[in-house]
Amino acid sequence: MDQLTGFQRDLLYVIAGMDRPSGQEILDDINSYIDQPVTHGRLYPNLDTLVEHELVEKGQLDRRTNYYALTPKGRRELENRQQWVNRYVEAPQS
User: Which of 6, 19, 20, 70 could form a disulfide with 74 if both were Cys (CB 3.0 to 4.6 A apart)?
Assistant: First the structure.
């Protein structure tokens, strides 16, 4: 996970929260969170990177639409990341 950008990690969270979303569904969701609109030209290369790292599976819904889903490796990496984040976010204040 440390080799990923923050945007790529955000994409993993979005994919984890949806059931085999299409690229457009991911784009719509991430655009509701990020101030600067995300373009297709930014989204798809980052999704491809996640596929190359074997964190995300890319499949075909129909001739024009792909879906994305976390792989078991992607789920483990995301869970490990979340545990690490929780150690600091949920840490008692001194």
Answer: 70
